[in-house]
Amino acid sequence: MVGLADNNSGSNSSSNSKAKDKKKRKKKKRGGSKRKMTAEQTLAFKSVIEWVYLDNQNYYSSMAALSSSWVVDDFGVQKSVGRGMEKLVFELHSHSKHSDGFLSPSKLVERAHGNGVKVLALTDHDTMSGIPEAIEMACRFGIKIIPGVEISTIFSPRNSEMEEEPVHILAYYSSCGPARYEELEKLLANIRDGRYLRAKDMVLKLNKLKLPLKWEHVTKIAGKGVAPGRLHVARAMVEAGYVDNLKQAFARYLYDGGPAYSTGSEPLAEEAVQLICETGGLAVLAHPWALKNPIPIIRRLKDAGLHGMEVYRSDGRLAAYSDLADTYGLLKLGGSDYHGRGGHGESELGSVNLPVLALHDFLKVARPIWCCSIKNILESCADEPSDSNLARIARFGRMGSFKGSCPLSCDKNLIERCLSSWLTTEERQNAEFEAIRLKLSHISVNPGGAQLPIASK
Questions:
Q1: Pick from 272, 226, 221, 279: which is nearest to 249 by CA?
Q2: What are phi and psi of 309, to 5 degrees?
């Protein structure tokens, strides 16, 4: 009996030891133990939350007061500590029904809220049409929306031995949206028109492969006014029973260069990056791990003005692409690329952990660009006051005040509300913004488009 007891004891000890080792490995994979932020991380995080809670200064102040208790994991990702110190989650890559996502912008925002997301970039393929709806819903949940778009482009190599490659560029804009919006929309509309032709060509190729897919089936899935993409074609194939799932549709037919693959009217990648920069956006290379030849693409796009690239995924940081970002001096970002299709193969909304310093670096580069863009948009409105120019300000901003107001009026209170929700106090206290503020406060636009001066208060 003694011997048996001794053996059991040894067995239990061995099992407990293995269980502890497994727990340690799992904990390390998640980021390990919590530790207090360094001085650098604390300053960085304070700057990030100041921007996130521009329109809720009381909450910012209460969070800032807890700075001594802020903690991060081994990877520098901020962690929550009890009540009142929740995790600040950024989601920088998501899609809605306005492109190839499964959820409406409202439902996407609702899901983001349920997952603890505080900052959400809606980056539909080649359209920004879902952003006003996302912003309206985000107001209810206290979520900050970054107006974004994922632009479909093509990379044309100078070396004849290399093939052309599709490249996706993420663009992130200020709360005021793109400056020179019409120029960007012209590019996006051209891509969307090409997507219709591309999808039709895919259906034709599938038909030739003896898969009688109907064009009407694809457009029904895409929805009214949505340019069909590969995912819509894939969904139609699944519903028609030609493949078992989306993964099979891509693996057999729709992959880049596949038997049913087709190109559209995508612009050159460098041209898209340049236009993003010219319209007040931040240009970021999406999922570089999907590229066949990432190095020459990254090098050329950096020369064109690329600001960053995705290196973080829900399964962690990809070291090889992190090194490439370091080599070319690019921001290291990432997002879930959430579409809402479900299944084990898709990353959940808000599942990518971005380190505090990565978030700070992102905003440190983005905020001066966005600040300049907002200034240009407001200057344009002040120089040429009209309903259409005022509507540009209201398009992406949380400007419910514009709705139903007739005439539209740029009174001082409205301007101040705009600027205080878009810019920090330091950014607003600028001579150029003061001059624009003064000029706008003397303008009112009536329904007929005539400009009338407002009496100064």
A1: 221
A2: -150, 155
CB 152 within 8 A of CB 124: no
pTM: 0.83
Amino acid (1-letter code) at residue 162: M
Handedness of CA 38, 43, 44, 50 (dihedral sign): positive
* Measured distance CA(110)–CA(273) in Å, rounded: 31
- Percent of the chain topping pLDDT 70: 84
Confidence of residue 229 (pLDDT cuts 50, 70, 90): confident
Distance between CA atoms of residues 350 and 89, nearest Å: 6
d(CA 303, CA 331): 15
DSSP assignment, residue 338? B
Degrees to nearest 5, angle at CA 310 with 28 and 397: 115
Read off the pLDDT band of 406 (50, 70, 90).
very low
Average pLDDT, the chain: 85
Pair 140, 122: CB distance under 8 Å: no
Query: CA–CA separation, 138 vs 426, rounded Å?
Result: 25
Cis peptide before 407 (omega within 30 of 0): yes
Q: Is 40 left (phi over 0), alpha (psi -120 to 50) or beta?
A: alpha
Distances (CA, A) of 189 to 151, 186, 266, 326: 11, 5, 11, 34
388 or 70, which is more confident? 70
Q: Residue 392 has which token pair?
A: 């540009």
Enumerate the β-bridge partners of residue 295: none
Judging by DSSP bridges, how do beta strands 89-94 and 408-409 pair with one another? unpaired
**Inter-residue contact 146 to 281 (CB < 8 Å):** no
Residue type, 204: L
Backbone φ and ψ of 338, nearest 5°: -70, 130
Cβ count within 10 A of residue 17: 10
